[in-house]
Design brief:
By secondary structure, the chain is an alpha/beta fold. It is built from 13 helices and 19 strands.
Length: 445
């Protein structure tokens, strides 16, 4: 059996595509940990922020020597940077054999056969408006994961002015509900208990396809799958967050009480320049309504600091929004120019040191809020889906609460809890996690 080294950058959508590539290669390749041992090296890339793209170039560059020593090794770059750069990538890095765009993942086996015949470099980056990712069933490879992701739609039609995604992932297209359900059923047969439904903007699921269910209806269909215990989804655009979807949090038992709702900025003026389609007040109103319907819901968000034209006053509105909403966790980034995105033409760029200082202030504020929220868990009993031993402390088990908090906990020795749903008593907190003690098993494994 040949060996494949696969490294994934970026979002869950990319992790999903990596899983599909491994499924396509199953039977011919087994995954390996070290690029030096591999017959095939695949880098699945992200271009959402400049830093992510730079990481890719430095990693792919490192394989130049390896390729010089062992020319038979196939080096492939896939994902968003592959889509964005296309031919430019092989010109800049002649040791790359394959550039596989975001709509061409399923063509990987065919591409490898061509390369074997000596046709290299191969650049497959065609995109079609109506492209629907074909069904690729997950391969049984003995890893037995407890949770999995399933893409329900590809692409994005929103064109936020900072964002490269519509250009590298194409227009919004929803996958047929039958494909989605079949894929999840197959995962559940393999032992998966929790599924995350993925899309750039899941709220618009099915809107363009006549006869498709709405997203809230799709969740209810997924919830009927026996043996599936938990459902999550990401990402949700605040402007399209419907009352129907909010109600699903209270009504569908399997839907976990956590929502990632990227706000990006607390200033209506900046939100307008970002082309986000909602104001600060409209966002806050959605949060208020959501908490009215489902009081225990945990919220997380994305923040961009230093968007072109962001003044100190605008930035303070972001801080005040963080204080007002009290997110469980946030992901915050310094604005960076991206290819094709409109904001790169905006003239009033914020200096790098101001962006860095603002990011620091956001981190400080959020660290305090996250810690306060984490502390409020002490003494409570939570339901955790056990994923296995903790990577950093293998003597502890790890899993997540329904509200998506990581819990590391101790359990009696010899108890095989991977894949079980258990109650844990929270005793302490880490910076980004909770610590506890096993109480009892609710279900499984
Ligand atoms: N600069 C900085 N952050 C960005 N994001 C997207 N584009 C940019 C950019 N040009 C952030 C947003 C988005 C997350 C995935 O990445 O916050 O929600
Ligand atoms: Fe990165 Fe966006 Fe591509 Fe995901 S879709 S890999 S976040 S650029």
């Amino acid at each position: 059996m040949k060996r494949v080294f696969l490294k994934t950058f970026g979002c869950q959508m990319n992790e999903y595509d990596s899983e599909r590539m491994l499924a396509l290669l199953a039977g011919e390749y087994v995954p390996c940990e070290a690029p030096e041992e591999a017959d095939l090296i695949l880098i699945n890339t992200c271009s959402v922020r400049r830093k992510a793209e730079e990481k890719v170039y430095s990693l792919v560059g490192r394989f130049r020597h390896l390729k010089a020593r062992r020319p038979e090794v196939v080096v492939g770059v896939c994902g968003c940077v592959a889509q964005q750069e296309g031919e430019r990538l092989v010109k800049r890095m002649p040791h790359v054999d394959l550039v596989l765009g975001t709509q061409n993942v399923h063509r990987l086996p065919e591409a490898l056969r061509e390369i074997e015949k000596g046709r290299r470099p191969l650049v497959l980056t065609e995109m079609r408006r109506d492209f629907v990712p074909p069904l690729i069933l997950p391969s049984p490879d003995g890893r037995r994961p407890v949770k999995a992701q399933v893409t329900i739609m590809q692409g994005c039609d929103n064109f936020c002015s900072y964002c490269v995604v519509p250009y590298v992932r194409g227009r919004e297209v929803s996958r047929p509900p039958e494909d989605i359900l079949k894929e999840i059923e197959c995962l559940v047969e393999r032992g998966v208990r929790e599924v995350t439904l993925l899309g750039q903007n899941v709220n618009s699921y099915g809107k363009k396809e006549p006869g498709f269910p709405t997203f809230a209806e799709l969740i209810r269909l997924v919830a009927e799958i026996p043996g599936l215990w938990r459902i999550r989804f990401t990402t949700s655009h605040p402007k399209d967050l419907s009352e129907d979807l909010m109600r699903a949090f209270a009504e569908v038992d399997k839907l976990c009480e956590h929502l990632h709702l990227p706000v990006q900025s607390g200033s209506t003026r900046i939100l307008r320049r970002m082309n986000r389609g909602y104001t600060r007040d409209e966002y806050l109103e959605k949060v208020r309504r959501l908490r009215e319907i489902c009081p225990e819901i945990a919220l997380t968000t994305d923040i961009i600091v230093g968007f072109p034209g962001e003044t100190e006053e605008d930035f303070r509105e972001t801080l005040s929004l963080l204080e007002e909403v009290r997110f469980d966790e946030i992901f915050s980034f310094k604005y960076s120019d991206r290819p094709y995105a409109r904001a790169r033409e905006f003239s009033d760029k914020v200096p790098e040191e101001v962006k860095a200082e603002r990011l620091e202030r956001v981190h400080e504020l959020q660290a305090r809020i996250t810690q306060e929220i984490n502390r409020s868990y002490i003494g409570k009993t939570v339901e955790v889906l056990v994923e296995g031993p903790s990577e950093t402390r293998p003597e502890l088990l790890t899993g997540r609460t329904r509200t998506n908090h990581v819990v590391n906990f101790s359990a009696p020795e010899g108890l095989d809890l991977k894949g079980a749903l258990v109650y844990v008593l929270i005793k302490d907190t880490g910076k980004h996690s909770l610590r506890g003690e096993y109480l009892k098993t609710v279900k499984g494994p």
